[in-house]
Amino acid sequence: MIRFDNVVKRFGDNTVLDGFTCRMAPGEFVTLIGPSGSGKTTILRLVMTLERVTDGLIEIDGSPLSHMHRGGKLVPADEKHLAGVRTRIGMVFQQFNLFPNMTVLRNITEAPVRVLGLTPAEADERARDLLDLVGLADKADEHPSRLSGGQQQRVAIARALAMRPDVLLLDEVTSALDPELVAGVLGLLGHIADTTDITFLCVTHEMGFARDVSDRVLMFDHGRVIEDAPPERLFTDPREERTREFLQAVVGRT
Ligand SMILES: Nc1ncnc2c1ncn2[C@@H]1O[C@H](COP(=O)(O)OP(=O)(O)OP(=O)(O)O)[C@@H](O)[C@H]1O
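^ thats the input. predicted complex w/ adenosine-5'-triphosphate below
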């Protein structure tokens, strides 16, 4: 369970998030939509602890992300605490960010060995199972540059899953892909979402994907959630004029 409690984020006098409150259950797939600059990526960066909240609290399973308990008080978290928190959160980016000098297999085993302390044999077994899942069992010994964008993104997904995260953040995961590769990556993510207890938090401009895969869609505008609804409702019967305008601009529907 992720809990956002009245989260405020300011950069200087720019209030990017203005009191974001939300609970996301295990296994839930939540997609954030909204105009450019409305604060969606900032939420992912806060969960990833790359940014700190200005005010409010984010918790995963009752443990605060950017703060920790010390001497009966809640104080800002130190690097050690943040490093522990980050092991529970996976992220897949627009740019795949694979290590170019490592094989596909090593890309996937590196963090489980280094961070979780798995033996190389355990990590290899986990990685090979994941390569099966993402349809790249035959690419284990290749280097990323030999793979297509879609294949690289599948490796990035396998690498994130290898850490067995509680939360998986997806930031425009198909933006850098050729159009014919998009459906395969999105289909894979939909399958993983359906078959695991991971909480997905997704920022996308792919409204078709948001509609097919999400349990909930949150519409952001100026740092606030103006609608929070299942996709079948939000995309067909938006309650807010601003949502209607946004969807018309993005997909020409409603
Ligand atoms: N590190 C930063 N320093 C200053 N301002 C920032 C920083 N990061 C984000 N912002 C500002 O926060 C606002 C929200 O940015 P954010 O990236 O969260 O929007 P977004 O909804 O994800 O937009 P997009 O759809 O274009 O990715 C923008 O005005 C942006 O300029």
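The longest strand covers residues 14-24.
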